[in-house]
TrEMBL record:
The gene is pssM. This is PssM. The chain crosses the membrane at residues 290-310. Keywords: Glycosyltransferase, Membrane, Plasmid, Transferase, Transmembrane, Transmembrane helix. Belongs to the glycosyltransferase 2 family. Residues 16-177 form the Glycosyltransferase 2-like domain. GO terms for molecular function: glycosyltransferase activity.
């Protein structure tokens, strides 16, 4: 807490929370921390949350960073939701910018998103999240499915959105004060199937509790999200689509199908058909990769739908997810 800046009248105080879990991401994690430290203007505090990896926490504490920051270990259940909830508990900023440990932010990212939150009706904002490919981008990979990599996908337009994308999102602390934290039954863990939708569930819960509020997409600044070679494969692509279907099934029971699937209906009826037309147009222009993208669009949709069908059946029989209790967000010393 000692590194927290004293509030300036009329200025929203800010915290950057970076969640990490793996030593294998050491190089990109350091780049993410350095980019967070270079924000202009600077954040009032930077907190790095280590998710149940004591060796990584020790390694971070032993490193000399040019900018003061705090290294804190996750005190909640393992996974991204628990780590973020720890970050909420130990930080003090009125606005919290959550960054993934493999997302390198633009220098003006924090300032750009905070400007959006100067409007009291804006509960949170998300930036552009650009894929940073470790290898050449696969010719078959469609822009419409960049969400499988935690990036901004084709079809997402500036302005109000149902939910934020976790790699680079800014949320008012008031949202957590009114609604609690991220659901620990959702969100990724180091070992489990890459389930998600914790940001979506939180945003739906927040707009129910604060109906005057909204979330927005502001693409004028952003982050580069590292995409390792093992994620630029058909196997990962289909696996991630399957997992998203499972997650959406559970979310639809928690939040109701109407709100949980509202954006997906537009995505299926507009975004995907437009992607198919672009793919065939490219084929007519002599670009065979257009046909591969059409195949990927169909395969991704089929895998997601199959995951949703199975997840809906399982979740209907046994509902495993419950909201994070308020006590999960009590201050952590």
């Amino acid at each position: 807490m000692d590194n927290f800046q004293h509030p300036v009248p009329g200025k929203l105080t800010t915290a950057i929370v970076i969640c990490c879990y793996s030593d294998k991401r050491w190089d990109i994690l350091n780049k993410a921390i350095e980019a967070a430290a270079r924000q202009v203007p600077a954040a009032d505090e930077i907190v790095v949350i280590v998710d149940h990896n004591p060796a990584l926490a020790l390694r971070l504490r032993a490193k000399r960073f040019e900018t003061p920051l705090r290294i804190v270990e996750n005190v909640h259940p393992p996974g991204l939701s628990g780590a973020r909830n720890t970050g909420i508990s130990v930080s003090r900023g009125e606005v919290i910018l959550f960054l993934d440990d493999d997302a390198v932010s633009d220098q003006d990212l924090l300032a750009t998103l905070v400007r959006q939150l100067e409007d009291p009706s804006v509960l949170g904002a998300v930036s552009a999240i650009r894929p940073l490919w470790e290898t050449d981008r696969p010719s078959w990979f469609p822009d419409e499915f960049l969400w499988t990599l935690g990036c901004t996908y084709r079809g997402l337009h500036p302005g109000p959105v149902r939910n934020l994308i976790g790699a680079s999102m800014c949320i008012r602390r008031d949202v957590f004060d009114h609604t609690g934290g991220f659901d620990s039954g959702l969100g990724r863990t180091a070992k489990a199937l890459p389930l998600g939708c914790e940001e979506t569930e939180l945003c739906i819960r927040a707009t129910k509790a604060l109906p005057h509020g909204r979330f927005v997409f502001e693409p004028s600044s952003g982050s580069d999200h590292a995409i390792p070679a093992d994620r630029a494969t058909w196997k990962y692509f289909l696996h991630r689509c399957w997992a998203e279907g499972l997650s959406k099934a559970s979310l639809s029971l928690m939040a109701g199908s109407g709100e949980a699937l509202a954006s997906e209906r537009t995505y299926m009826t507009r975004t995907l058909p437009q992607g198919v037309m672009r793919g065939f147009a490219d084929v007519l222009l002599g670009q065979p990769s257009g046909l591969l993208r059409v195949v990927a669009l169909g395969a991704g949709l089929a895998a997601t739908a199959a995951g949703f069908a199975l997840g809906r059946t399982r979740a209907a029989l046994k509902r495993p997810f419950t909201s994070v209790p308020a006590r999960a967000l009590e201050p952590v010393e």
